[in-house]
Structure prediction request, 311 residues.
Amino acid sequence: MDINDYKTDNIIEQLYSHKPQLTHPTDLTDKIMSVLPQKTRQTTPALKWVRLISATAAVLLICLFCVQQNESGPLTAFVNDKSVNFTLTNFSELKHHNELNTETSPLILYQSHLQHNSLKNKKLYSISQLFN
Amino acid sequence: MENQDINQLIELSLCDDRKAFRQIVESHQYMIYSLAFRVLGNEEDAKDIVQDSFLRIWLNLKNFDMNQKFSTWAYRIASNLCIDKLRKQKIKTTTFNHSSTANIESDDFEKHISDKELGEIILSLTEELSPKQKIVFTLRYLEEIEVEEIKKITGLSNEKIKSNLYVARQTIRKKIEKY
Prediction:
């Protein structure tokens, strides 16, 4: 080890032993605290469960709504104040139905059903367009 | 501060408890200041690094792994900020002042030298080092951090750390040789 190695060690040792002074540490702490933005709170486990349950319920309700909308169960129409149960499977078949002008025609029954329920919706409109 | 205590304060801080976070700041600000001052060589820049470091710590607290040491994580954030600062700023080339080393070599060094002079000496001795070499040198020789922890802080391998330390030491030695 030569003199320069010794000097290097000595200087490094001196630099290590001289600790820089932090003036006004409380002011620095205050400054740091003042610039911290509002934290987005960490999600608590309870809140996570509430979110999960709400999301599941929402999905189930949407599914239920879709199933109800696509149900093809028997419909009820009122012909001459009498209720008649019928089913509709395919609207396009109605156009070629033999009993188009009879009271038991599925189209007439369906129109009756929709009118009775005041459902002036797109389905009725499109079907009526089909036959015009 | 014990690791368990700091973890408790972190848990509280995660729930927006600012008093808890203040305790973390109070107990760790000097550690970061010392590193930043010894790397950057001036008080104002060092204080900016402390402030930016705690801002990052606050914003990323949820990503902190409780199994690791908080000080290592804080050092890593501060080191990265120091490296960014060193890369951005055009460091004024400080001419190596022999009177500064004369001060260092005197017995009553600590009594005579001010922080400003200390900053100048550090800057003049380490001006030729790359930001990474400076960080490694400061962490190992001036902050006395173990190589294993420096590895976690800098992400460098043992060999790379040792070579950086060797280069840093040789650079300082050459500076001293000239005078």
The radius of gyration of chain B is 17 Å.
